[in-house]
Amino acid sequence: MKRFAVLAAILTAVTAPLLAGDSGFIRVDEDAKAARLQTGITRYAKDGATVDLIGAVHIGDKTYYEALNQRFTKYEVVLFEMIGGEQINAAPVPAADAAPRRPHPLAVLYGAIANGLALTGQVDHIDYTAKNFLHADLTAREFAEKQDERGESLFSFALQSKGGAKSPDTLRLAYGLLARRPDHLKLSIIHTLGAGDDQVAALAGDNVVIGDRNVRCLEVLSRELAAGRKNVGIFYGAAHFPDMERRLLEQGFTRTDHQWLTAWNVLKPIHKPAAPVPSPH
Question: Which of 58, 134, 183, 235 is most buried (CB neighbours < 10 A)?
Answer without folding.
Answer: 235
